[in-house]
Design a protein that fits this description.
This protein is of the alpha+beta class. The chain folds into 4 domains: 71 residues, no CATH class; 103 residues, no CATH class; 111 residues, Immunoglobulin-like (Sandwich); 124 residues, Immunoglobulin-like (Sandwich), CATH 2.60.40. Helix 5 packs antiparallel against helix 6.
Length: 464
Amino acid sequence: MDKIRKKIIAGAALLLMAAGLTLALPAQKRTLDDASKLFLSEVRYLISRQEKKFFYKLTPAQRPDFITSFWKKRDPDTYTEENEFKEAYYKRIAEANALFREGSTPGWLQDRGRIYIMLGPPDDRVTNPGFRDFHYEYWYYFATPQVIRLVFIDRDLNGEYELATGADQSGMSRNPSYSLAQIQKLMEGRTLNVKKRNSFEISAEMERGLGDNLNIRLMLPYNHIWMTESDGVLSTTLAVTLKVYENGNEEVTWTYFKEYPVSMIEAEAEEYFKKQHTIDILSNLPDGNYRIKIEVVNKTDGRKINREMRFNLRPSTDVAPPKTDLPGKAAPSLPKLIEAHTVSVKQNQTFEVGTEIQRGVGDGFIIRLMVPYRELQAAESEGPLNASLALALQIQVESTGKVAWSHAREYPISLDAAETAAVIDHDYIIEVPAQLPTGSYRLLMRLENAAGERKLEKQIAFRK
């Protein structure tokens, strides 16, 4: 045993000599100064057991050279002055502290922080504060041979989320669960991605229509939109603000604001996450040179992205549609609407509600309701808007009358005076995902505000 131990020490000495260091013998553990303690604490997710063992055996004078070598061998591009790996690592520590502030433990030392630092931001994060008698989060990673879902549970409701493993996960999900050893192996095999990642990407394109009409199309990857989960449905709201200026002029020529609910059935999430969410906005601008500012805010996690671009509008008969200077693939074809017609309408007061049924993935489709904000506001009121809409939907098979699908939910709306003024001329949009095989159906809809002052009952026949 002593011979083997001497060989290990000799091998360690050779490794350190290659890094310009020598191993101080005898090999007892030395007392660490504050700077060395801080270094070991900060690199706890990176340093190997062997490196840590060697570090303890170095003299205080040797440790700075070890630290320099430690980061240098992890530098992905030694020809630049910056160490992109080191910068990315400390950036993730700062992000983890900012994102996971609940509980008494600093964010980067929590389980969520540890996974965030080593695996990076999840491709999707689903939060549900209020499941049974505890809180939980799902984290999805898609850039692996198979989709990986990790579950974090706050059992004591104190903000301290713990990574659920083995049986803990299997009780939360039908997806495969992962033991702690499997997760650690995954983390060890995944190199910290130092490539700059825009976690909330957007691309935009424009297309000239008839006359002065202009279609502005925004495209966001579904797997960059963080959502919350409720009753098997993932949802969030994107707040979109557009401002158009004539080149050389700081006065706004055209402005637009609207909130767009985004939702999908959780069972279809993996398929949706391969696609882009498309928002089409119709504007009216004469020919000329313009500058547009685009702002999109995800109201689930508060992340915001801003883009600014210049574009030229020319008659559509003279030139091809203008291209933007934003990155992105060719615009996808617009989702097709399912042909539907109203069978009957019953209401106690005028309650204008637009209805669309849009094709989705496979047997999926989305029922979209468009309720004017103005109809939710009290008459002649210019103050805040507080309302609640109770929606009940039922789909029957046209030939038999058998109920094939149903949905019931309340939608609270709370806006301050400034927010109300910005949206009052727009629609509040409700999107409800559903899934049914091909056939003929009848949609029965009941919508009323909380006070019961406005009530709408509507039947729509459609075939998909």
